[in-house]
TrEMBL record:
The keyword Lyase applies. Residues 1-12 have a biased composition (Polar residues). Keywords: Aminotransferase, Lyase, Pyridoxal phosphate, Transferase. This is Aminotransferase class V-fold PLP-dependent enzyme. It comes from Micromonospora cathayae. Pfam families: Pyridoxal_deC (PF00282). The keyword Transferase applies. Coiled coil: none annotated. GO terms for molecular function: transaminase activity.
Length: 511
């Protein structure tokens, strides 16, 4: 211990750098530096607990094209620009050039640019879909400084990032229901929700949860008649829908070719298969984009001017995205979309072939969404059984008239694995039936259905977490069905609070 440490009454970090184990990682700041190869070995050991990002068995969170050499290319491109700072494009014109090229590619794919109905389209590169959506809401809000309480009209199937944007930006959210059969909002309902204070109307192409495309043409038309901006959230599938149309799918018009669509977003780290995190937000013209910027000169330092939320931005993700698009090209994306479409169709056939399951929606993009028709088949137990067989899916809770479901985001990497999925699905269903539905204590279910969120105490949450195997040294349980069953029984407000508290128990410092 140094004299300074002794005087302060604190201990220096351990001289032993440690190795990752069941208790988590070693301290991030050891007393002495650790050799590079050992640090990389520690990271590899930690990564061993993660879901597989490659191999076509993870149906959420990551997008794998299974293109040989692409990872090596994007890693090198990322490294070449990792220390470039997007704060000042005049200091680093390489990053500005790559951003402009990415915006141009997105605009060309999504109905904008020279020779189109949106020849003056402009855009920005953001860190992901959530940032793109927040900025779309900000631009719409700031374009109407006369309004005391600006509002946005959002189908309930729209991404939760719009609710986050409304929360951050103090904009009121007017939800519009979706038809339980079509999973789409009715244009008339959207029109009825528009008020004088409405600054933005939202639609999805496609929606994340179910993979269906909203009636963009109708929604954009009613927004235009009301003099309101219309944003199309194509973050999830906007990069692949144009290619699916070229392959013969009846994809409806959804992009800047639709009159009344004033902005659209698409994530390049999804079906453009770039590494995380790169999204593009397009506006029909520069006037619409202008309120997106933040500028501030009333201080002694440099004048801050930001097109996006962050100031300092690493050029690594942008360079990696640029390298991905250049390497794959239009023909490469068409081939990847074809492989993905084949996988979607065969996965859907596998679901249709299992008694007790049904598709919640006929696939029209890159999502297979399934639910159960058998009360004895617990969907959350099925998710666990699929996980035990190496298939990582995403459970979705019941909402209003919509049942709980299982979401599969399908990528090109899934195609070679489809033949394995069908038998495993049938086997997992049989195992789930044999195990039976999760039975939580009646008093716990009653509490979940009636407890006000503000009544949750730290002691109550800790007790629930311990009973469900969450938190502490245990980390996460092997089986999540009891947790999902409890969350499914809770109203949305209580579910939100429970998840906040559960995640808080997991996110604790390592000393």
């Amino acid at each position: 211990m140094t004299d300074q440490a002794a005087a302060s009454g604190t201990d220096q970090a351990s001289d032993d750098p440690g190795t990752p184990g069941a208790g988590g990682p070693p301290p991030a700041l050891p007393a002495q530096g650790v050799p590079a190869d050992r640090v990389l070995a520690e990271i590899a050991a930690l990564r061993a607990a993660d879901r597989p990002t490659h191999g076509g068995r993870l149906f959420a969170y990551v997008y794998d094209p299974a293109v040989p050499g692409l990872d090596e290319l994007t890693t090198a491109a990322h490294a070449a620009s990792a220390h470039v700072n997007g704060l000042d494009p005049t200091a680093f014109p390489s990053l500005l050039a790559m951003e402009n090229a990415l915006v141009g590619a997105a605009a060309k794919l999504l109905g904008g640019g020279p020779g189109t109905g949106a020849p003056d389209v402009v855009g920005s590169v953001t860190s992901g879909g959530t940032e793109s959506l927040i900025l779309a809401v900000k631009a719409a809000r700031d374009a109407r400084p006369d309004l005391v309480e600006p509002r946005i009209v959002v189908p309930v199937s729209a991404h939760a990032a719009f609710a986050k944007a409304a929360h951050y930006l103090r904009v009121a959210l007017d939800p519009v229901p979706v038809d339980p059969a079509t999973l789409r909002p009715e244009v008339a309902d959207v029109a009825a929700a528009i008020r004088p204070e409405t600054v933005l109307v939202v639609c999805s192409a496609p929606s994340y949860a179910h993979g269906v495309v909203d009636p963009v043409e109708g929604i954009a038309a009613v927004a235009a008649r009301a003099g309101v901006r219309c944003h199309v959230d194509a973050c999830f599938g906007g990069w692949t829908l144009p290619y699916l149309r070229r392959l013969g799918l009846p994809v409806p018009r959804f992009d800047l070719s639709v009159p009344g669509v004033t902005s659209i977003s698409v994530d390049l780290h999804k079906y453009a298969y770039a590494p995380k995190g790169v999204s593009v937000l397009l506006h029909r013209d520069p006037t619409l984009r202008a309120p997106q910027y933040f500028a501030f000169a009333d201080w002694p330092g440099y004048t801050m001017i930001n097109p996006v939320i962050s100031s300092t931005r690493s050029g690594g993700p942008i360079a990696a995205a640029y390298a991905t698009l250049r390497h794959l090209g239009d023909a490469g994306y068409l081939e990847l979309a074809d492989r993905t479409l084949t996988a979607v169709r065969r996965l859907a056939d596998a679901v249709r072939g299992v008694e007790g399951l049904r598709l919640l929606a006929e696939p029209e993009s890159t999502v297979v969404c399934l639910t159960t028709t058998d009360p004895g088949l617990d969907l959350f137990v099925l998710v666990d059984e699929l996980t035990a067989r190496g298939w990582h899916t995403q459970p979705q809770m019941a909402y209003a008239d919509l049942p709980a479901s299982v979401h599969l985001t399908v990528t090109a990497a899934v195609a070679p694995k489809v033949d394995e999925f069908g038998p495993d699905l049938a086997d997992a269903v049989a195992a789930a039936r044999a195990a039976g539905p999760v039975r939580l204590p009646d008093e716990l279910l009653a509490m979940a259905a009636s407890l006000p969120p503000e009544a949750l105490t730290p002691e109550l949450v800790a007790g629930l977490a311990a009973g469900l195997g969450l938190g502490g040294a245990a980390g996460l349980p092997d089986r999540m069905a009891p947790v999902n069953t409890l969350l499914n029984a809770a109203p949305p407000a209580l579910r939100e609070r429970l998840l906040v508290e559960f995640v808080s128990l997991l996110q604790r410092p390592v000393y």
